[in-house]
Write a structure and sequence with these properties.
Shape of chain B: flat
Low-confidence stretches of chain A: none
Largest sheet of chain B: 2 strands, antiparallel
CATH class of one domain in chain A: Alpha Beta
Order of helices and strands of chain B: HHHEE
Distance between the termini of chain B: 41 Å
Shape of chain A: globular
Distance between the termini of chain A: 10 Å
Strand order of the largest sheet of chain B: 1-2
Number of strands of chain B: 2
Number of helices of chain A: 16
Radius of gyration of chain B: 22 Å
Helix content of chain A: 25-40%
CATH architecture of one domain in chain A: Alpha-Beta Complex
Number of helices of chain B: 3
Largest interface: A-B, 75 and 54 residues
Oligomer: heterodimer
CATH class of one domain in chain B: Mainly Alpha
CATH architecture of one domain in chain B: Orthogonal Bundle
């Protein structure tokens, strides 16, 4: 790892402005690091020519004194974001050879602010997974290993490539998306920051849809400040997305240092689950202590419908997915397999193009939406969702400013460790994060410490709608107390 | 509620995904595990609760009824696995 790739985005900004290095030098350092880190399988496609051209433009801008907010900052982009003329397949075979003729709003915002694209990052197929093992391009390997072990661990998912690339210094920051925990869980597994903003804060236009009422884009970064810098550029009010919020984007970075003095932080008793490693429990206690020491008031709260969030999610998300994924029919883009008639063509194409987990969810979704079952499943799940949201509203109305929970029930597990397990066991990874999507709230995962095995464990802060600023302030307080965490670069020859 | 193999095949047909007998058997187990898991929602009293339609209360945006897009037929078909000019090609639909 060269020094340049270890810089934070805030340091890159200062370094470029002060002429300590050029944007092209910086980009080259990342391209070299990516070249040496193929063993992690974080990138599906690298775009060195594009990256160097964008970096050269940044150097021109810096010389001309027309520097933009993210000038020269090299980023990795999750394969779920449409990038004009560049591989965009949601890590699925069914989008074989798809190259969009347009750019997603989020990535367009980043390029307009001067960021540099390094490539497209691996992920679970269609963002369905919690270990990055459902990708058509193979699993991503976590840059972290247990102490004294060479066994490959998963980086979490679905933004596993994003998390691994950020943790291994293969980009300065990355985009992710979070439908049930897909930014926060991999951030926790790799010892970095992951922020899922309020539903509607980042435009969904040009992001391959999974479950439209839950999907939300957000940043993964190595510091809280960097995540705040990235979110300011990613977020916008977008006329092309009817659910994008018509609200001005605040200067999140300005909130990072404002502290938690006088804030009330709720601790939900329902987030204490069986089988949680003692370190996770201890770090949750430590988190409370850090926030209290910084002047926050800690109160016990109850979110009684918490345990129903995951089952309700596994009705709502597959139902929406089965509808969204109906578009992959072998006609307009992607893979096509022949068939005797048009129906056989659809069936053969979708059978060959979708992986196991995607098929599983499309079938569950089709079943729960099918005639006679809609009320029993989908309608009931949407009612439970109202109750889950009401739990949060009640707590926030009582004066709680943010909620502190563990980010995940465990640290990273082994590649293929869940191969024979029931799908439910994998789904349980998202038990602490999924409630936030169901209620449309913002949530941030921040590393809090290491387990006895030397693996990172994260805490989560949950906030009120559109109050990402309080989460950045709280997360910075945790970062100040817990410190930052970096894996040993075993992958780099 | 649990599903049998025939139901899996029927749902797969609705979803337009070809499944072999072997796949249908594996999916039957998976689907039953998932449907069993979501069954706990039946414990919740949802009497008088409105189903959620939007997580963030907002008015559906409306814009002026004017043409804002179009004239990009070449772009639309550029990723098609089979196209002729600006037409998608599909297997014969009508005899």
């Amino acid at each position: 790892m060269s020094d340049l790739t270890a810089l934070t985005i805030a340091e890159i900004r200062d370094g470029l402005a002060g002429g300590k290095f050029s944007a092209v030098e910086l980009t080259r350092a990342f391209l070299t690091a990516m070249d040496k880190a193929r063993a992690l399988n974080a990138y599906i496609v690298e775009t060195p020519e594009k990256a160097l051209a964008m970096a050269a433009e940044s150097d021109r801008r810096i010389a001309a004194g027309t520097t933009r907010r993210l000038e020269g900052v090299p980023l990795g982009i999750k394969d779920l974001f449409c990038t004009e003329g560049v591989h965009t397949q949601a890590a699925s075979h069914i989008l074989d050879a798809f190259k969009p003729t347009y750019e997603s709003t989020v990535t367009a915002n980043l390029w307009a602010d001067g960021a540099v694209m390094l490539g497209k990052l691996n992920m679970d197929e269609f963002a369905m997974g919690s270990s990055n093992e459902t990708s058509y391009y193979g699993p991503v390997i976590n840059p972290w290993r247990s102490l004294g072990s060479n066994a490959a661990l998963v980086p979490g998912g679905s933004s596993g490539g994003s998390a691994a690339a950020v943790a291994a210094h293969l980009c300065a920051g990355a985009t992710g998306t979070d439908t049930g925990g897909s930014i926060r869980q991999p951030a926790a597994f790799t010892g970095i920051i992951g922020m899922k903003p309020t539903y509607g804060r980042c435009s969904r236009w040009g992001i391959v849809a999974f479950a439209s009422s839950l999907d939300q884009a957000g940043p993964l970064a190595r510091t809280v400040r960097d995540a705040a810098i990235l979110l300011r550029s990613m977020a916008s009010a977008d006329p092309k997305d009817t659910t994008s919020a018509e609200l001005p984007v605040p200067d999140y970075e300005a909130a990072v240092g404002r502290g938690v003095k006088g804030l009330t932080i709720g601790i939900p008793k329902e987030y204490r689950v069986d089988g949680m490693p003692p370190e996770a429990e201890a770090l949750w206690e430590a988190g409370k202590g850090w926030l209290a020491a910084a002047g926050a008031r800690i109160v016990d709260i109850s979110l009684p419908h918490t345990k129903y969030a995951l089952p309700a999610y596994y009705i709502v998300a597959p139902a929406e997915a089965s509808s969204n994924l109906a578009r992959y029919d072998g006609v307009r883009y992607g893979l096509r397999l022949p068939g005797d008639d048009v129906i056989a063509m659809y069936e053969n194409t979708r059978s060959a193009g979708f992986g196991k987990e995607v098929k599983r969810r499309v079938l569950v979704g089709t079943y729960v939406l099918s005639a006679g079952y809609y009320d029993a499943y989908y309608l009931r799940a949407q009612k439970v969702r109202t109750l889950i949201k009401r739990d949060f509203e009640t707590v926030f109305a009582s004066g709680v400013d943010a909620i502190l929970t563990p980010a995940t029930p465990t640290a990273a597990f082994g590649v293929e460790a869940m191969a024979l397990a029931s799908p439910i066991e994998m789904y349980l990874n998202d038990v602490f994060t999924v409630t936030v999507n169901m209620a449309g709230l913002p949530g941030i995962a921040v590393p809090a410490g290491l387990t006895g095995d030397g693996l990172p464990v994260g805490l989560q802060l949950i906030g009120k709608p559109f109050d990402e600023e309080t989460l950045f302030a709280g997360a910075q307080t945790i970062e100040d107390a817990a410190g930052r965490f970096s894996p040993e670069p075993w992958w780099s020859p | 509620m649990s599903v049998d193999k025939d139901t899996v095949k029927r749902v797969a047909r609705l979803a337009r995904i070809a499944v072999s007998d072997e796949e249908a058997e594996a999916l039957r187990g998976d689907l039953n595990a998932i449907l069993g898991f979501v069954e706990q929602l039946n414990e919740v009293d949802v009497t008088g609760v409105e189903p959620m339609t939007a997580v963030v209360p907002m008015k559906m945006k409306q814009r002026d009824d004017v043409v804002t897009d179009g004239g990009i037929a070449d772009d639309i078909v550029v990723n098609a696995p089979a196209a002729e000019g600006t037409l998608f090609q599909v297997p014969k639909v009508i005899e």
